[in-house]
Amino acid sequence: MSSSSSDLPPLDPRTQALVKAILSRQIPTIAQLVNACPEQQRSQFLTPALNQLADSDPASAQWFIRHILRLRPANS
C-alpha cells in the first residue's frame, strides 16, 4: 500500500522551510537551514523533509541527495 501526503505527520516550520527551499533549488537557504542544525540532529531534521519530498516530488528528493553527495569530502 502506498502512502500519501496525508499519511505523513505535519512538518515543523523549519522542516517546511527546508522542503520549500529544496523544491525551488535554493542552495544558500538549504545550506543555512541544514548547517544551523546540530550534526547529531540532522537525520531527525532531514528524514521528515525527504519523506515528504519522496511522496510529493521524488525528483526534488533525488536532486537534493545527488547535490549532497557531490559536496561530501572525498575522505568521508
How would you portray this structure in words?
With 76 residues, the chain is an all-alpha fold. The protein has one domain (11-71). It is 64% helix and 0% strand. The chain is built from 4 helices and no strands. It has helices at 13-23, 27-35, 42-56, 58-71. 17% of the residues are buried.
In terms of structural class, how would the helical and strand content be classed? mainly alpha
Helix content: 55-70%
Largest sheet: none
Gyration radius (Cα, Å) is: 13 Å
- Total beta-strand segments: 0
Number of helices in the DSSP assignment: 4
Strand content: under 5%
Poorly predicted regions = none
Secondary-structure blueprint of this entry?
Blueprint: H1 13-23, H2 27-35, H3 42-56, H4 58-71
Helix pairs in contact: 1-2, 1-3, 3-4
Q: Which characteristics define this entry?
A:
76 residues; single chain; 0% strand; mainly alpha
What is shown here, in short?
The protein is mainly α and 76 residues long. Helices cover 64% and strands 0% of the residues.
